[in-house]
């Protein structure tokens, strides 16, 4: 009886275990749901188009005043007065300093008196020469006496000319006592004060005037860049930009662009042997005197034009672990592929593409983090680029 009961209990336990296992398996099957498909990522693309690219060079240089005049004392004397206000704008001919004119006035009076005396002597010599000319014809005086009278007249004429020159010199010295501005511009601080003795054995500097509007900017470019540009022009890869049509933009030391455009004046004909660079000079309007001589600036100079070129936004460029630039391109079936590119120079927020892309390619510019090579994407078209300027400079 006990054996039968034991067997019955074992069967009941086995059935309960099997029921529990079946229930668990049935519950798992009921709760499992089919895996949801990942959504197609959305990206924005830019369709590349061939367009003219302005080949520019960004060059370093400094601002220079077109005209600089160092005002100096041209006569010796004591400074009585400084007439101008330091740091002000002056016009050509404005009075700047007044040197004591009394000694020069006295010299002028003395020279005029000497001229009057020379005139009187010449008058007497002329009369004597006239009398002797008549008498020598009548044999009343000898030829030697007439020659002496004529020589005296010539000497008297020379003495008058010398006296006139002395008067002119004295008048000039008197004028130099009033120091005027040789050019128009902005004048700096005075280098002498009232009571200073100036012009003693040297031309004492008094002040400096600089013309500031318009103003010049001298930049330098390496002969290597110029040679490469010339080769491209001769090969027909680029088109030359005329000097009067060249776009010149000034980049100030804080990185901002100067609002007024400039023009290229000339490029030097000699190479600096110490730097192997050539100097180029440009001119900019400076009506508000924002540009001051000596300031460090950069100049963006358009030197040529590439008739047909491609560029991509900087944000579209990806780089692998080796630093090789790549882009993601979407084909007609909305499938993404990876494309290695050769980049030129950067300008603004765009890269110039030398190789690896063609007109009509759709380059991913937004949503790069979601797009992967070999997968499909949903395309949202981005606004197209309008213009590009290629920088080849430093």
Automatic annotation (TrEMBL):
Signal keyword on record: yes
All residue ranges annotated as the Multidrug resistance protein MdtA-like barrel-sandwich hybrid domain in the record: 67-209
Domain Multidrug resistance protein MdtA-like C-terminal permuted SH3 span(s) in chain numbering: 311-369
Signal found in the keyword field: yes
Coiled-coil residue spans: 146-173
SUPFAM superfamilies according to UniProt: HlyD-like secretion proteins (SSF111369)
Pfam families: Beta-barrel_RND (PF25944), BSH_RND (PF25917), HH_MFP_RND (PF25876), RND-MFP_C (PF25967)
Membrane topology, as annotated: Lipid-anchor
Family: Belongs to the membrane fusion protein (MFP) (TC 8.A.1) family.
Protein name as catalogued: Efflux transporter periplasmic adaptor subunit
Originating species: Pseudomonas parafulva
């Amino acid at each position: 009886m006990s054996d039968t009961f034991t067997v019955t209990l074992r069967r009941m336990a086995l059935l309960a275990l099997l029921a529990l296992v079946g229930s668990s398996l049935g519950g798992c099957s009921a709760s499992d749901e089919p895996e949801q498909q990942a959504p197609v990522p959305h990206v924005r693309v830019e369709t590349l188009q061939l367009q003219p690219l302005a080949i520019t060079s960004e060059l370093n240089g400094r601002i220079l005043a077109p005209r600089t005049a160092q005002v100096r004392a041209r006569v010796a004397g004591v400074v009585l007065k400084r007439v101008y206000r330091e740091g002000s704008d002056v016009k050509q001919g404005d009075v700047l300093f007044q040197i004591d004119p009394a000694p020069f006035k006295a010299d002028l009076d003395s020279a005029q008196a000497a001229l009057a005396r020379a005139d009187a002597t010449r008058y007497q010599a002329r009369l004597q020469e006239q009398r002797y000319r008549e008498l020598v014809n009548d044999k009343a005086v000898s030829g030697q006496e007439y020659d002496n009278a004529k020589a005296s007249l010539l000497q008297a004429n020379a003495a008058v000319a010398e006296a006139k020159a002395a008067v002119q010199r004295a008048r000039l010295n008197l004028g130099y006592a009033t120091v005027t501005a040789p050019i128009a511009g902005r004048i700096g601080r005075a280098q002498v004060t009232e009571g200073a003795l100036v012009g003693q054995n040297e031309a004492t500097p008094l002040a400096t005037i600089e013309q500031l509007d318009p103003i010049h900017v001298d930049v330098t470019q390496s002969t290597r860049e110029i040679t490469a540009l010339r080769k491209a022009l001769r090969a027909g890869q680029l088109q030359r930009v005329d000097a009067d049509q060249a776009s010149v933009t000034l980049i100030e030391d804080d990185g901002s662009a100067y609002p007024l455009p400039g023009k290229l004046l000339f490029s030097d004909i000699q190479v600096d042997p110490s730097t192997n660079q050539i100097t180029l000079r440009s001119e900019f309007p400076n009506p508000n005197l924002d540009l001051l001589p000596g300031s460090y600036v950069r100049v963006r100079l358009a030197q040529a034009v590439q008739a047909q070129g491609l560029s991509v936004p900087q944000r579209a460029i990806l780089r692998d672990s080796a630093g090789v630039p790549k882009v993601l391109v979407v084909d007609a079936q909305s499938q993404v592929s990876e494309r290695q590119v050769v980049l030129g120079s950067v300008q603004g927020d765009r890269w110039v593409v030398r190789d690896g892309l063609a007109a009509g390619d759709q380059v991913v510019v937004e949503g790069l983090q979601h797009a992967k090579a070999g997968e499909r994407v949903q395309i949202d078209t981005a606004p197209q680029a309008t213009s590009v300027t290629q920088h080849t400079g430093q």
